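Section 5: illustrative case.
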């Protein structure tokens, strides 16, 4: 999914009759919609301030889900799904990754899972979150980081990996994921060969429940969710079932 220029940039200059106020109104109307979530701030494990988007349900206390994006993509990629989760009475908190490009060192990349753990700690500390009802979902390399964080957390009860990789440039999650004993939903496009193979391999010999879903839509990560509403429904229903939403 690419960023699209605003409609104002495609419409040419505003007619003179509109005047300055008319030009301002055109610019305001041409801006993309703001994020559906509310900005929240908490501390990373190294003390950095992290900004995230919280999509808050009307009924509380509620379960909570941390959403981890693809490499090079913003937390706003989760807007639609975050709102769907909130509508299903689940608090969703979408984070950014610490960097927008591969750091080139699998150890540094793996350490990015610390920000996922910080988000888990944050939602677990909120008084409006139900104890023992926390999930994590990640896309592409975000799936690897979600798996690493879930495997070392005592509070994560449900996991969704979208277009995961067995080995992302030296960052392997197969052995680590075996430490996670809770239920996990593994999702990939049938037209994404490596992600599909990774889903099958990660589901083997698992210590907990592993549900697998394959989409006929050819896309990767959050782009798959944007293009296949059935996969979005599967993700939301999974968290409703595994986190105990009535």
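Designed sequence:
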């Amino acid at each position: 999914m690419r960023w699209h220029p605003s409609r104002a940039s495609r419409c040419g200059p505003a007619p003179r009759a509109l005047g300055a106020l008319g030009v301002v109104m055109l610019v305001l109307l041409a801006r993309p919609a703001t994020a559906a979530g509310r900005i929240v701030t908490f501390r990373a494990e190294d003390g950095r301030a992290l900004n995230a988007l919280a999509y808050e349900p009307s009924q509380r206390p509620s379960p909570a889900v941390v959403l981890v994006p693809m490499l090079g993509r913003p937390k706003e990629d989760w807007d639609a799904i975050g709102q769907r989760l909130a509508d299903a009475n689940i608090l969703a908190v979408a984070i950014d990754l610490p960097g927008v490009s591969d750091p080139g060192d699998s150890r540094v990349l793996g350490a990015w899972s610390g920000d996922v753990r910080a988000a888990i700690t944050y939602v677990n500390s909120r008084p409006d979150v139900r104890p023992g009802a926390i999930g994590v979902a990640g896309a592409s390399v975000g799936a690897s980081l979600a798996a690493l964080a879930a495997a070392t957390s005592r509070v994560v009860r449900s996991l969704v990996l979208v277009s995961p990789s067995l080995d992302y440039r030296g960052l392997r999650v197969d052995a680590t994921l075996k430490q996670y004993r809770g239920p996990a939903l593994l999702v990939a496009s049938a037209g994404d060969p490596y992600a599909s193979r990774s889903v099958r391999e990660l589901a083997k010999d698992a210590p907990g429940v592993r549900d697998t879903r394959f989409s006929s839509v050819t896309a990767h990560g959050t782009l798959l969710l944007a293009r296949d509403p059935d996969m979005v429904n599967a993700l939301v229903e999974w968290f409703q079932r595994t986190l105990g939403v009535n």
